[in-house]
Specification:
Helices cover 38% and strands 22% of the residues. It has 13 helices and 13 strands.
Length: 444
């Protein structure tokens, strides 16, 4: 209820929810109605309060009322005179249920648009795949066996038999003696859902084809997808499969360990020799497990191997250690290669046991240091400080040997050449076990 100045004199609610949200209008009493609405609704309130507005047909306007916490409530309002001078009554209807319904409608519409978009994209992808397939493909009506669609490969295959494929019964495209068998095959497929492939000759003097068929549903109807392949191509494919099976059988029986991993070095397949070396009973125990569980003395060793394999594509004669689940340690020599399978890289590792091989002694004489070749083999296996110490000893020993050779085993001259005292030279000779000191050594 408004007075002649547009101030609120009384408020009534027909909805408990709206009354609770607006605090029963207690904060509105005595305030101008225009002060209780949001800024964008003030023009609508002024238009409703305009005395020049005809009152015979009340206008309904959407007005947003401000709550105490700052949010707004949409109210559909109309104004009418009360009968007393200047008094008016404002009728309002809560629009939140309608707003929520509209919001849900918008969300449903957006969800449908996203679904339609995904369907269109999927249809585009499969249409492109159908058109670009190198195999001849036909889509048939399951009842009449007439061709509905044919990809470009099928158009080229049937170019000599007919100029127009859509609409023609597919058995007519094959020779007379194969038509009955083809019709029986497609009828069995329609009733049973699956059928074996069959061979049929194209036309009367065309090539022999291998016919494969499967069913699918579209818009409530059953369609048949027919794939055609030249029989000699199928025979070659069978030969390749058999050759691959023989190769896999050979790799499983070789005495050296062979393992295939994915790009993250997780095992995909392993032969019996690898299972024996890591002391497990079945390939299932190894499949999916990281190769580093068994290969490498330290964690960095396998990382170096994989980094080299990824950058160069192959690795040869990489020496490392293979650890068994029961504690066995086997020194192995690794050769590896990186190949692409299905667009993803995978790694093949051949691990050969080199433990039984005869090795040169690690030290020459009594306490001699390692050779340069042996030092390079230690990279990645021992700490750097130990490797540097070994390298320093090797260089020092080689320099002393060279000095003794140049001076004809004259140790005084060798010490002068090396910038050492004679006593220091004798200490190093005794350390490296070089020569026979006899009685020439310094007194103890």
């Amino acid at each position: 209820m408004l007075d002649d100045a547009g101030a609120i004199r009384d408020v009534g609610f027909g909805s408990d929810e709206l009354a609770n949200d607006l605090d029963n209008g207690g904060t509105w009493l005595g305030r101008p109605w225009i002060d209780t609405v949001s800024r964008d609704s003030r023009g609508k309130v002024e238009a409703l309060l305009d005395p020049s507005t005809p009152s015979d047909a009340p206008r309904w306007r959407h007005v947003n009322h401000v709550l105490a916490e700052g949010s707004t409530v949409p109210i559909l309002c109309a104004i009418a005179p009360l009968g007393r001078a200047g008094r008016r009554v404002v009728f309002g209807r809560d629009l939140r249920p309608l707003s929520q319904l509209q919001q849900r409608l918008v969300e449903v519409q957006q969800s449908m648009e996203r679904d339609y978009s995904r369907l269109r994209q999927a249809e585009t992808r499969y249409r492109l795949l159908f058109q670009m397939s190198v195999d001849p493909l036909l889509v048939l009506d399951s009842e009449s066996l007439r061709i509905l669609e044919a990809n470009p490969a099928a158009q080229r295959l049937f170019a000599q038999a007919t100029r127009r494929l859509p609409g023609r019964p597919v058995p007519e495209l094959f020779c007379a003696q194969d038509r009955a068998g083809l019709q029986t095959m497609l009828a069995t497929l329609r009733s049973a859902g699956r059928v074996d492939d069959m061979r049929a000759r194209l036309g009367e003097d065309g090539p022999e084809l291998l016919v494969s068929a499967s069913t699918f549903r579209q818009e409530g109807s059953v369609l048949i997808l027919v794939r055609l392949e030249r029989a000699e191509g199928a025979a070659a494919a069978d030969g390749n499969v058999a050759q691959g099976a023989r190769l896999l059988k050979v790799m499983d029986g070789v005495p050296d360990a062979f393992v295939v991993t994915d790009r993250d070095a997780r095992i995909l397949s392993a032969n019996a020799a690898f299972l024996d070396m890591v002391q497990i009973t079945g390939e299932e125990q190894a499949r999916g497990v990281a190769l580093e569980r068994w290969v490498g003395r330290q964690g960095v060793e396998l990382e170096v191997l994989l980094a080299t394999l990824r950058s160069r594509g192959s690795v040869r004669m990489f020496t490392t250690m293979l650890r068994g689940d029961l504690g066995a340690l086997t020194e192995v020599e690794v050769s590896a290669v990186s190949v692409l399978h299905g667009g993803e890289p995978c790694f093949g590792f051949l691990l050969r046991d080199i433990g039984p091989r005869a090795k040169p002694p690690a030290r020459m004489g009594n306490g001699a240091t390692r050779s340069v070749e042996q030092l390079t083999e230690l990279i990645g296996r021992v700490p750097l400080k130990d490797l540097v110490r070994e390298a320093t000893d090797a260089i020092e020993r080689l320099c002393i040997e060279a000095a003794l050779d140049l001076t004809g085993d004259n140790r005084a001259s060798a010490a002068e050449m090396l910038g050492l005292s004679r006593q220091s030279l004798y200490v190093k000779l005794r350390r490296y076990g070089l020569g026979d000191l006899g009685d020439d050594g310094p007194e103890s």
